[in-house]
Amino acid sequence: MEKVYRLLARQIIEDYRIERGICVEIGSGDGKLGLELARLTELHIYMVDINCDALRRALRNAHEANLSGRITVIPARAEQLPFAEGSADLVVSRGSIFFWEDKPRGLREAYRILKPGGVAFVGGGLSRYVSEEERREFVRARMAALKDEESRREWMRLRSSLYFRRILHQAGIQDFKLIADPPGIWVEIWKR
Description:
alpha/beta
């Protein structure tokens, strides 16, 4: 599903039209989404992750893609982002929120670093451009990888609108929109 990141980057650019400035990718891993955004825009991408090995791979991937001049890696937690308030035009995170220790605090941090007019796009969907067949295959593979029925139910619970509304409420974020992207969900957070 490598192409998910390319399709998701395209979707983000089409929806938000943010093509210059600062983008922070929380939980970047080896940088797949950030690199796709860098390929399609003039954004400077700050890749944030707690895994230093993943960040080293992200740097190597950026170098191989001739994008290392617009990629900066930063070891940090979602709950303690080392950015000034109002410093990012765009904040993105695909899949990492499910691993944050304090999800409401991580969402507050994403909101804090947004510039007025900026947007955060956080969650665990695929992209509206992923075909139904690919979506079904993804779900089949994910469910097969989970150990038991209880694990499968928990995986789905963490991707429900009810769960996301609860953590957004706990974070004190009121200006948001939930976007279903089965089997996942996205939250779009605007800073007005």
